[in-house]
Amino acid sequence: MANGWTGPAGPGLPAAVAAREVVDWLSTVGAESLAEAEALEVIGLLERAKGAAAAAQARLTVSFVKGRDAAVAAVEGSGEIDARTARQRRAAARSEVALARRCSPSQADRHVGLARALVDELPETMAALTAGDISEWRATVVARGTACLSRADRLEADRRLAPDLDRLGDRGIDRAARRVSAELDAESVVERHRRAVASRSVSVRPAPDGMAWLSILGPLVDVVGAHAALTAAEQARWVATGDPARDAARAGDERGRGAWMADTALERLSGRGEGEVQPVEIGLVMTPAALLPRLGDVSGGPCGHEASNGPVEVPGWGSIPGAAVREHLARLLEGPAAGAAEHNASGESAETSAERERRVWLRRLFTGPDGRDLVATDSRRRLFGGALRAMLMMRDPTCRIPWCDAPTREIDHVRAVADGGETSAANAMGVCSRHNLDKETPGWGVEVRRSGLDPGESTHMVRLATPTGVVYDAQAPPLRGHGTHPPPAEEAFSPLERYLEHLIAAAA
Q1: Cβ 427 vs Cβ 448: under 8 Å
Q2: I want to staple 475 with a disulfide (CB 3.0 to 4.6 A). Which of 13, 86, 214, 461 is the partner?
Q3: Domain ranges in the chain?
Q4: Predicted model pTM
Q5: Which InterPro entries match (predicted)?
Q6: Which of 501, 508, 436 is nearest to 295 (CA)?
């Protein structure tokens, strides 16, 4: 396909043009009426086409990356750049792959690793993928299961697995790959298990219904031991302590086993005592109608259930119902539930009501008239800090580079200070650590296209240009998250302004 294409799009077309034609052709599949047998045949052929497309992506990825790496190696060998700069330039090339594949840089690194393994060390698996006999995921499973082997052993494992690749499912291929690896080089498998300890980590991801998963990846013995400790603690809560108040509080606790273990684990991880509020600030972005449920009734907006349960955004994570947030705020202000012990484990007095209230803050964030975008302020300082940094972290909770969902780690100047750039919200963008370095690599460029401050202007937007000349636009997300519906443009006053008007009229 590198030189031309003969197929639905026509003969002899350049590769890029042919690929676009194929995409356009695929968008029409299904428009015509097909018999059942023919429909199933097309479904199967399209599944094979996905594998063949993944194989083509792998070949092109290896060609692109090897070319860039060779160019960097030549410059490094001449002494023009040091090893650190060379590593950064190689990483920037992978980031270009990420943009082309519309994924994060970490995913692109995995795609590049898989492509190199398929092209250089797993020819039989690559042949099966090219023919569409296996999916890209099953090729990934083979590469992952044989990653600990030397090149010679990996070629042998690939040869042994080849006859069964088109007959086994995901789990079957995974078990077969690990079994062959253990037979060829048991010592490397043991060493792989030892190295896996270095990959231990903690992660958070949103869950449905205002919940979230906290995951801990660690050694099996330690994780099972932590779970056993929680289980033992849950069982011990039914044992009398001799303290009438504490025993009465435990007897009145109606939480189930799972809920109790989850609450206890979160309390211990955050350093809170029983009944204490969360000492870490968590941003909750909500409309006046979500905070004050009766606001919609007197302002002409939505009312009833919709007004009181409008979505509240936790920047960078997702939305939860307004009613749940109000319950959370009330719980923070109320403190420990009735019947809870008046003293903590160290004998200190429980937190007073005034101390609890000082821990609960409502911060006002002003948006534009449509309630969508955060209004910015300027700073004369060289670094982004204080209220300006906090505001920008709220505006850009995740990296602004397209398809990178990594949390924002740096608030960076779009136009460098050395080039006359200001320390302002208009000249700022939130990025992850990797993209902060990528954009400083030769050939990359970023410029502000919209400040987000002018009346009638849409949200803040920057334009990213890569060394290959491809440009990508990156807009700041809405303050309340994508999918929120702004009020009609013809409304002259915001719901809060109409609510204040109502109060003034009532007082008069």
Answers
A1: yes
A2: 461
A3: 1-32, 34-194, 386-475
A4: 0.68
A5: DUF222, HNH_nuc
A6: 501
